[in-house]
Design goal:
Elements (H helix, E strand, L loop, with lengths): L11 E2 H7 L6 H9 L3 E3 L2 E2 L6 E2 L4 E5 L4 E6 L9 H4 L3 E3 L21 H15 L3
Antiparallel strand pairs: 1-4, 2-3, 2-5, 5-6, 6-7
Amino acid sequence: MSGVEKPALEKQRIDKWLFFARVVKSRSLAAKLADGGKVTVNDLKCGSASHAVKPDDRLVIDLDRVERVLIVRAIGERRGPAPEAALLFEDVTPAPAPKDTGLVPTHGGRPEKSERRAYERLRAQIFDRD
């Protein structure tokens, strides 16, 4: 070793950063996201995979079912394990809106035993009046 340290990177391509941060499974998928206009950097649409990101940039990534909001905290050097990748960003995605809590069970499918018995009691009160 020569004792000369490698200078810290200040910027990185968006496709490499998304891959290193484990937002997507492959770099080609990251490039498709960026080229397809699914990534916004500091409120500006990212037009290409070569767009540079730096620490403190705010990314909005439109994935299939979720829109993630990330703040870049560091530039990655490799695609490492998940705990290492988690140090590259801060997730500030807003919590989803609470689901409607109506009278209809939201779990779907067959009602539970207690729900069936409550339904039968209600039905008896309504229809079995003499």
